[in-house]
Amino acid sequence: MLDIRPVAYVIGLLVTALGACMVLPMLVDLAEGRGEWHVFLTSGIITMLTGGLVALACSNGIGEGLTLQQTFLLTTGVWVALPLFGALPFMFGATQASFTDAFFEAMSGLTTTGSTVFAGLDELPKGLLIWRGLLQWLGGIGIIVVAMVFLPELKVGGMQIFRSEAFDTMGKILPRATQISASISSIYISLTVVCGICYIFTGMNAFDATVHAMTTVSTGGFSNYDASFGMFSGPAEYVAAIFMILAALPFVRYVQMLNGTENALLHDSQVRAFIATIAVLVAVTAITLLWIFPHHPEQAAREALFNISSIISGTGYASVDYMQWGNFLIALFFFIGLIGGCAGSTACSVKIFRYQLLFASIRVQLRRIRSPRGVFVPRYDGRPVGPDVLSSVMSFFTFFVVSLGVFAVVLGLLGHDFITAVSGAATALGNIGPGLGDRIGPAGNFAGLGDAAKWVLAFAMLVGRLEVLAVYALFTVRFWRG
Amino acid sequence: MLDIRPVAYVIGLLVTALGACMVLPMLVDLAEGRGEWHVFLTSGIITMLTGGLVALACSNGIGEGLTLQQTFLLTTGVWVALPLFGALPFMFGATQASFTDAFFEAMSGLTTTGSTVFAGLDELPKGLLIWRGLLQWLGGIGIIVVAMVFLPELKVGGMQIFRSEAFDTMGKILPRATQISASISSIYISLTVVCGICYIFTGMNAFDATVHAMTTVSTGGFSNYDASFGMFSGPAEYVAAIFMILAALPFVRYVQMLNGTENALLHDSQVRAFIATIAVLVAVTAITLLWIFPHHPEQAAREALFNISSIISGTGYASVDYMQWGNFLIALFFFIGLIGGCAGSTACSVKIFRYQLLFASIRVQLRRIRSPRGVFVPRYDGRPVGPDVLSSVMSFFTFFVVSLGVFAVVLGLLGHDFITAVSGAATALGNIGPGLGDRIGPAGNFAGLGDAAKWVLAFAMLVGRLEVLAVYALFTVRFWRG
Ligand SMILES: [K+]
Ligand SMILES: [K+]
């Protein structure tokens, strides 16, 4: 029998912690003085009480560590429980959201997707705005820890190639998982602070700088304005681009750099591939934009850098309605969203290391054409890659693509046109944020979709954020069979 | 140094044979008496002369068999050379096509894609119509032989799992590749004849029955009418559905059945998966169509069976403009096109056995969750599957999806909207035929695309038909390096 008490215990603790985080937006609302602080007081009390009681009730079940099954259940359980409670302020507060809308927004936050169902952001109480930013910020650090500590153990999506490496390297510096998390967290906090300060230098006020720093470093993409980064065109876009890229790099490399391995970042082959990809795409986009703004080369370069960084990192800030930029960039941006950032960062989607592994495997096959009897092994970052990693990556990629198809067909069933259905499924599964088309494109939002579509998309966000198979495993009979 | 003479010799012979086939449309044109027969006389003489001279010039290079490199070059070379000459009648004949249009049509024919650049088919001389059918029919039998004999040797796209099996089984009955081809060809011819007779029974005239039998059994999908199967609604749709499905089953099983293994077809796991998939999809589609034609249950069932069979087998006949059937079926049909039929048939696209292999690999991974120390091997049709097959399948799937993205972006660059770009890339790469949207959807055709888009799509057809990597291998430096 699967003992769920240790799982419920940890989830209870994390829910309690989420409730405690509601103090921050409460203080912001108190300072703003629109009388909205009680929203977070109520939500916080409900959340902390429920979480605390669950943890208390299950504390008798704590053993020494978790089984693999329990770890799977925990990973998905956390990302279902936290949005349930993270949704409360949206239901009680000025947004007066339905449960569906509130859950969608909280899931979109905690998975760092950044699709929003709210219009009129500019007018919302500051507490709700910072709560949206905080959900993404917590989701971002949460996923790095999960990707570093849990997913390699679960052997999901080929993440196991980072297991030995991360633990070997970390093993020398930091012996335990909690210490890994602590050291990653301090990097994450520092990046956020520096990003916020840079935003202030570009002229943002302290509040916007704080929220946008949180949603930049988490590659979440929530903004305080309906116009998103259209509010801040100019220097702020350069700052955003730099920090979105930094947030999409593997955080363990920063730890190594701080510990004296200065080249840690550039020695990582996924980092090199990621930067090279961005460079090529920015160049192509900038050249295309020069046709659209022929007299503004700086604007073309800036918009290219900002939008490519925003989409490839899965942040999903928009500075303009790029549906107006013509069919080439629309199609390009759609497929770039399916590339994604580096593993062990806050970025999502397929991720660049999987393409590297897939291409390494293809290269080996082409080599066999020349030497049919030769023995060749695909390599990643100079090391041989085992068949189990390759088959994990293959499974991930297959399930990602098949899920994309299934979610799109379901959205079609719910009455959405082809471009909304396909781009909606992709943006949710890839945790990107904006879709394509008039409705959910960069100029629209997700408010107009039906409730069923919102639940489908919220589920797709969860599936995408947890590397697909970590969630699907729970739906198999085999998993639950005693 | 790569000796291309043996390759050129075989291609020369095949071009000569294609030229000889032009006698058939010439006779049809003679019988019709519109004075068009000279088109095929001229084309035939040019084709046979060129092919013959090349074969003669290279006959001194024939060795004993081909190297792997030469086999790759031959496979792609055939599918580039034959369309070049197959295009001649479209340039010289009543269609007066440009070289681009003629090549597109011939490539679309020989790859059994079935996208057409010609409107006003109903008025064309019969010689050209039967030439279109004949190109698909030859392309269909050609691909079965290539898939049976060459691709398993090239280890492209996981086709090697059919190698030992096909050759083992065949080994007992028929020792050599030419005999395999002969025995498959007689099945192919018989299916075509029976299909044609059935069409005549449904009321088609002999000419239409002949051409449509050729394009049905090749899962090509060219029709003699702009309205495609809209001309023949009723019993003919049932006949078409049955033969499209039969043509998408592995032909080697028919040979085995004729040789006494009565259950050969149903024992093949890809056949069972394929039939089950069709059954589910037809049921879902029929139920959806009952909302559209509530008072015509027979029509709903028939249109569901016909259209699902047409798309999943990659035939691409249209009976109605299903762009009018609502967003669910549009999205469903798009993704069904990416399933495809069985290996060793005339069907194309990803093919059902690859999904089976990918899912088998995923199942093994899920099993490891329960028993982390257990050793599990993915199985296909009861036999263990080696990692090289899985990595071939993975490479195929990755390159298929990435190619789809790249072709779609290039079509976007050429100015096409998202739905035209994405569905155009998918329909060409999957050798299906119709795309989605107003322009290239089931009610449109490919005439209005620019020349550049036509070349891109023709290349995509080639890539898709030859299992992607067989073509891409030629673009690597490694392949050509002495
Ligand atoms: K995002
Ligand atoms: K076809």
UniProtKB/TrEMBL annotation, chains A, B:
One of its GO terms (molecular function) is metal ion binding. The chain crosses the membrane at residues 7-28, 40-59, 71-92, 134-154, 186-207, 227-252, 273-293, 328-353, 389-414, 455-475. Keywords: Cell inner membrane, Cell membrane, Ion transport, Membrane, Metal-binding, Potassium, Potassium transport, Transmembrane, Transmembrane helix, Transport. It is found in: Cell inner membrane; Cell membrane. One of its GO terms (cellular component) is plasma membrane. K(+) binds at T112, T113, G220, T315, N431. Pfam families: TrkH (PF02386). It is a multi-pass membrane protein. Signal peptide: none annotated. InterPro entries: Cat_transpt, TrkH. Low-affinity potassium transport system. Interacts with Trk system potassium uptake protein TrkA. Belongs to the TrkH potassium transport family. This is Trk system potassium uptake protein. It comes from Sagittula salina. The lineage of its organism: Bacteria, Pseudomonadati, Pseudomonadota, Alphaproteobacteria, Rhodobacterales.
